[in-house]
Automatic annotation (TrEMBL):
Pfam families: RNA12 (PF10443), RRM_1 (PF00076). It is a single-pass membrane protein. It comes from Pichia sorbitophila (strain ATCC MYA-4447 / BCRC 22081 / CBS 7064 / NBRC 10061 / NRRL Y-12695). The gene is Piso0_003331. Residues 383-818 form the Mitochondrial escape protein 2 C-terminal domain. GO terms for cellular component: mitochondrial inner membrane. Keywords: Membrane, Mitochondrion, Mitochondrion inner membrane, mRNA processing, RNA-binding, Transit peptide, Transmembrane, Transmembrane helix. Plays a role in maintaining the mitochondrial genome and in controlling the mtDNA escape. Involved in the regulation of mtDNA nucleotide structure and number. May have a dispensable role in early maturation of pre-rRNA. Belongs to the YME2 family. This is Mitochondrial escape protein 2. It comes from the Eukaryota. Its main location: mitochondrion. It is found in: Mitochondrion inner membrane. Residues 210-263 form the RRM domain. InterPro entries: Mt_escape_2_C, Nucleotide-bd_a/b_plait_sf, RBD_domain_sf, RRM_dom, Yme2_C, Yme2_RRM.
């Protein structure tokens, strides 16, 4: 407290308002800076414990036989960074006070201009903020103070040391114009530690009369080059001196502060004028938003790509290769001690009820849920040749764009993953599985992006940034008039994910290529031997050539549940996946296998690869014998269900796995085989009548069939395994090839029928699901349903014939104006015959329509001809 009060009292006279103009007193009564300081020190001498500069801010020395010099650039360069450098340990040791004192002593000594022997350093005051120091030297009484002072200044300014670190420092300071210089202090220096950093601009406050520009130039030019001098005027009672360098201003401020000019009756007080620093980055952002904001966003995007994309690529590779999966190391004998208990514990937790049921209740209920037997593999035994065919296509490496088709429940996924890929040691750790059904079920764009990223292993993904970027984009658009481009569309983000996945898959495919290349180059560098012709060795294969010859190195992309159109939304994902898979094939990066039960999806895939023929495998239903073995094995522990009673019910079910499993569940729930089959047929019939034969549903825009067309197909397939397309085309309802093909494709998509093609041409139509044959018979044998739909069928035929007659009558009206009577006569005869034929056909349909309401038992009819 004593220290702060004392210092405040000392310098209170210097803190005057900016516009302060002192009223000059007579010369004899003018207060000078020196007398003020001396009087204050004398008044407080009784309480001052020390006369140190730290407390008084003033250097005490007797001017008679002492000289005060100022040395600049003794310490690191004057700036805020210089203050940081002063705390660096190496520099702190180099710039300690004792070393600096020794350096100053060496500077003032010179053999060419020697000093008196009794000259000694009396006081040393470091001014590290300004990079300099005040040094007081005592001068012998028999020497003139000014002469000795001039010698010391001359020696210090001219001497250059040439050894050790001093040489390096002097070389650096010479290049950067930061050499050590020395000046004699003219005034009374004010050693203050206020937060006033050096600047090249000095404020000169006059206590007395102001000085002119010429007088100020004479006083300050010795300290460095002056850029400008702004003299005092009526509005600004102080002058401004602007130096070229900061060091010049610091020397002038420390040497000229408090100088007394008796002839002018003026005392000068100097102060640094703070620099008005301009933040270039801030100015660019604030004043040039249309330029700065896009640049900043581009830089942020670049940094994000450089940081996160390599991380994401590693995560994708880990998902495909299972590098960090526990299952990869399960065969290790040391790892088994940890892995086996872990898997057992996980199994108990996830299947607790089943575990108790199998291990505790099995004492009273033996044989329930038996483990799989050879009967379970009967279905897969029938498909062993197709498994071999699929593997052969992969290892042939020729157009490995494979499509695995089959009805729902035919085990397509198990066929590809479990029985083909995972049984192959070279392929099982290079599988990327994507389920399109999980992508289609996404509720919004963010959920779709997250689901896609999880499918391919893309991590980390920041979906929340897209919402924030949309608000930022709106703000930038309001400020600059254009969008920032920060927010990306959902389709763009999906493309970025798939593009990075392609890079990861290529890295996996070329993983073994690096080893091959290094070993091949090493072999070529070996010296030639007499028994081996090195020149005969093949050249090192390029990347594409290596992948073509080593198909086992490429990963396998399995895309399941691919469909042309999803009823659940997000249809954009299917064309993207098709195009992405086509690029993988064209760039020879991976094998691609599509698993689908949607026939219409082939058209979408054909657009992605229009000039290639796809390799396809179609999985049909299991044979009757395999289906029987499967059901009997599942029901072997159920009492009261002998093989003969079950065998009689398996005919209508066929080999569709979904129907067989539903049949097994019904029997296990307590139903008899006959009741279970009847109930399943009834449900299938209700499904067909509700969805395909309902006029209200069929009239919706997304339905591509007519009720009469579906009814016709049901009647034909109720007693026939298949119907040839040539016979179906004879029915008037299927006269147009384009419309008929579109209708049949829509029905095949919903699994009502199956289209059989020969060399790509439609040949016949068969039932899409084995159970539907019994359902068709059930619908046709229902008297009420038969009357309703058969009536609608004949009415449809009558409408078709009436439309023909109307068209022919319109033609008669048009050609009646022709002048060529011969042509007119022949054309009218032809039209008349057509109208008569259509009229007779309508009469026949009307007669049959009357008979429909009279019969109690449905009759079969093809092309309108009754069959008993």
């Amino acid at each position: 407290m004593l220290r702060s009060c004392y210092r405040r009292n000392i310098f209170c006279q210097l803190r005057k308002p900016l516009g302060y103009r002192p009223i000059l007193a007579p010369r004899s009564t003018i207060r000078t800076y020196s007398s003020d300081v001396e009087n204050l020190k004398k008044e407080t001498e009784d309480v001052d414990l020390s006369k140190s500069v730290e407390y008084t801010g003033v250097i005490d020395y007797e001017k008679e036989q002492n000289v005060l010099l100022y040395f600049d650039h003794i310490y690191p360069i004057m700036s805020r960074w210089g203050k940081i450098l002063q705390h660096v340990p190496i520099l702190n040791n180099y710039y300690n006070d004792e070393r600096v004192k020794n350096h100053i002593t060496n500077l003032i000594q010179s053999e060419a201009n020697p000093l008196p022997e009794n000259v000694s350093m009396k006081n040393f005051v470091a001014l590290k903020r300004d990079g300099g120091a005040f040094v007081t030297f005592s001068i012998p009484a028999d020497h003139a103070v000014q002469d000795v002072s001039n010698k010391m200044i001359s020696n210090a300014n001219e001497k250059v040391l040439t050894s050790g670190l001093d040489f390096i420092r002097n070389l650096y300071t010479s290049v950067t114009h930061q050499t050590i210089t020395c000046f004699q202090v003219k005034g009374t220096p004010w050693i203050e530690d206020l937060r006033r950093h050096p600047s090249p601009r000095l404020k000169v406050i006059f206590e007395g009369d102001s000085l002119t520009e010429e007088e100020l130039y004479v006083l300050f030019r010795r300290y460095g080059v002056i850029v400008d001098i702004i003299p005092a005027n009526s509005s600004t009672p102080y002058a401004t001196v602007i130096f070229k360098r900061v060091r010049s201003a610091a020397c002038a401020k420390n040497c000229m502060t408090g100088i007394e000019l008796p002839k002018h009756g003026t005392t000068l007080h100097l102060r640094y004028i703070p620099l008005e620093r301009v933040n270039v980055v801030k100015d660019l952002i604030v004043n040039h938003q249309r330029i700065s904001i896009p640049i900043i966003l581009a830089l942020l995007a670049t940094v994000a790509v450089l940081i996160f994309d390599p991380i994401r690529e590693k995560f994708i590779e880990a998902k495909v290769t299972h590098k960090y999966s526990l299952d990869t190391y399960k065969d290790n004998k040391y790892f088994k001690y940890i892995y086996t208990p872990y898997k057992t514990l996980v199994f108990w937790i996830r299947n607790g009820y089943r575990y108790l049921d199998e291990n505790l209740i099995s004492t009273t209920h033996t044989g329930r849920d038996k483990p799989p037997t050879d009967y379970d593999n009967a279905i897969w035994y029938e498909r062993s040749e197709k498994v071999k065919q699929l593997r052969l296509w992969i290892y042939e490496n020729i157009n490995t764009f494979i499509i695995v088709r089959g009805p729902k429940g035919s085990g397509k996924q198990e066929f590809v993953l479990d029985h083909c890929l995972k049984n192959d040691e070279r392929l099982k750790n290079k599988i990327l599985y994507i389920d399109c059904d999980a992508l289609a079920k996404s509720r919004n764009d963010a959920s779709l992006i997250t689901s896609t990223a999880q499918q391919v292993g893309y991590f980390p993904v920041f979906t929340w940034l897209n919402s924030i970027s949309q608000f930022i984009d709106l703000g930038v658009q309001g400020l600059t008039g254009q969008k920032s481009g920060l927010s990306e569309s959902m389709e763009t983000q999906l493309k970025n994910i798939l593009s990075l996945t392609s890079q990861a898959l290529r890295g996996i495919a070329l993983n073994e290529y690096r080893t091959y290349r290094s070993s091949a180059l090493q072999r070529k560098k070996l010296p030639s031997r007499s028994d081996v012709d090195v020149t005969a060795e093949p050249e090192v294969l390029k990347e594409d050539e290596y992948l073509q010859q080593h198909p086992e190195g490429k990963p396998v992309l399995v895309i399941n549940n691919y469909a042309m159109k999803s009823d659940k939304g997000h249809d954009v994902i299917y064309p993207l996946i098709a195009d992405w898979a086509a690029q993988l094939i064209q760039n020879n990066i991976a094998h691609v296998i599509f698993i689908t039960d949607d026939v219409g999806s082939l058209s979408q895939l054909s657009k992605a690869l229009p000039n290639q023929v796809f390799k396809g495998i179609t999985l049909s239903d299991a044979s009757t014998e395999s289906a029987k073995h499967y059901v009997l094995n599942q029901l072997s522990d159920v009492a009261g269900n002998e093989g003969t009673s079950i065998d009689s019910c398996l005919g209508p079910l066929g080999g569709r796995m979904l129907d067989l499993q539903a049949f097994v569940r019904r029997i296990r729930s307590g139903e008899t085989p006959k009741n279970a089959l009847e109930e399943m047929i009834h449900q299938a019939s209700e499904q067909i009548t509700t969805f395909f034969l309902n006029d209200t549903v069929a009239s919706q825009p997304d339905r591509e069939w007519k009720t009469t067309q579906v009814w016709t197909i049901i009647k034909l397939l109720s007693d026939n395994d298949s119907v040839s397309y040539s016979e179906l085309a004879k029915i008037p309802l299927f006269a147009s090839y384009t419309d008929t093909l579109s209708t049949l494709s829509a029905l095949e998509k919903y699994d009502l029928v199956t289209l059989n093609r020969n060399k790509g041409v439609l040949e016949s139509i068969s039932i899409g699901r084995p159970l539907f044959r019994a359902a068709f018979k059930d619908i046709v044998q229902d008297v009420q349903l038969y009357k309703n739909y058969e009536t609608a069928y004949y009415k449809g035929l009558i409408e078709t014939e009436n439309a023909k007659i109307t068209k022919l009558e319109d033609e008669v009206a048009k050609i009646s104006k022709l002048s060529d009577l011969k042509y007119l006569k022949s054309r009218l005869e032809y039209i008349q015959s057509k109208i008569e034929a259509s009229t007779n056909t309508i009469l026949d349909y009307e007669a049959q329509l009357k008979d429909v309401g009279k019969v109690d038992k449905p009759k079969k009819s093809i092309l309108g001809i009754q069959i008993s």
